[in-house]
Amino acid sequence: MKNKITDLLKIKYPIIQAPMAGGITTSQLVSEVSNSGGLGMIGAGYMTSEQIKKQCREIKQLTTGNFGINLFVPNEFNFTDESITFANEKLEPIRKELNVQEPDTLDIPQFKQVVNSFNEQIKVVIEEKIPICSFTFGIPSEEIIHELKRKNIMLIGTATTVSEAVEIENKGMDMVVVQGSEAGGHRGNFIKDTQESLVGLMSLVPQVVDSVRIPVIAAGGIMDGRGLMASLCLGAQGVQMGTAFLTCAESGANRLHKDAILNTEEDNIILTRAFSGKWARGIKNKFTSDMKECEALLPDFPIQNSLTKRIRKESSLQGRDDFMSLWSGQSPRLAKEQSVSTLINSIIKEAKSIQEGVQSLRGGWIE
Amino acid sequence: MKNKITDLLKIKYPIIQAPMAGGITTSQLVSEVSNSGGLGMIGAGYMTSEQIKKQCREIKQLTTGNFGINLFVPNEFNFTDESITFANEKLEPIRKELNVQEPDTLDIPQFKQVVNSFNEQIKVVIEEKIPICSFTFGIPSEEIIHELKRKNIMLIGTATTVSEAVEIENKGMDMVVVQGSEAGGHRGNFIKDTQESLVGLMSLVPQVVDSVRIPVIAAGGIMDGRGLMASLCLGAQGVQMGTAFLTCAESGANRLHKDAILNTEEDNIILTRAFSGKWARGIKNKFTSDMKECEALLPDFPIQNSLTKRIRKESSLQGRDDFMSLWSGQSPRLAKEQSVSTLINSIIKEAKSIQEGVQSLRGGWIE
Question: What does the record give as cofactor (chains A, B) (predicted)?
Answer without folding.
Answer: FMN
